[in-house]
Write a structure and sequence with these properties.
The chain is of the alpha+beta class. The chain has one domain: Nuclear Transport Factor 2, Chain: A (Roll), CATH 3.10.450. 32% of the residues lie in helices and 35% in strands. It is built from 3 helices and 5 strands; from the N terminus they run αααβββββ. Strands 1, 2, 3, 4 and 5 form a 5-stranded antiparallel β-sheet that branches. It is globular.
Length: 107
C-alpha cells in the first residue's frame, strides 16, 4: 500500500481525535475494538490538549504490512500541546482506506 494512502487515513483519524470528534472515529472504525468512552477517556486522562501534529510527524511512524500489503499496522505517537507524546495510537489501515484502532496506550 502506498504511503500516501496510509498518511491520508492516519491524518484523518488523528485530526478527528484532535478536534474531539470521537463519535466519528468510533463509527468509522471497522472493528470497533475500543468504544467511544474508552477512546475519549484515554485522550482526556493523558493530560494536556491533544493537537494535530505538523506534517513531518506523519513520516515518523512505525509500521509494517500484513496480508500481502493489503493492510498496514501502524504505531503513531499522538501530540499534546504541540509536542510529540508517548501516547501511541496503534491502528490497522486497510487498502480500502478503512481502519481499525487496535489500542491507544503509553509505549
Amino acid at each position: 500500500m502506498k504511503k500516501e494512502k496510509i498518511n491520508k487515513t492516519l491524518q484523518s483519524v488523528v485530526k478527528n481525535l484532535a478536534i474531539g470528534n470521537f463519535n466519528l472515529v468510533f463509527e468509522s472504525d471497522k472493528n470497533q475494538r475500543l468504544n467511544i468512552v474508552e477512546i475519549e477517556t484515554v485522550i482526556k486522562e493523558y493530560g494536556g490538549t491533544i493537537t494535530f501534529p505538523p506534517a513531518h510527524a506523519f513520516n515518523n511512524y512505525v509500521g509494517y504490512s500484513r496480508e500481502n500489503e493489503k493492510e498496514n499496522f501502524i504505531e503513531f505517537n499522538l501530540w499534546f500541546d504541540d509536542v510529540e507524546s508517548d501516547l501511541t495510537l496503534s491502528i490497522t489501515i486497510y487498502e480500502t482506506e478503512e481502519y481499525s484502532i487496535e489500542d491507544i496506550r503509553v509505549l
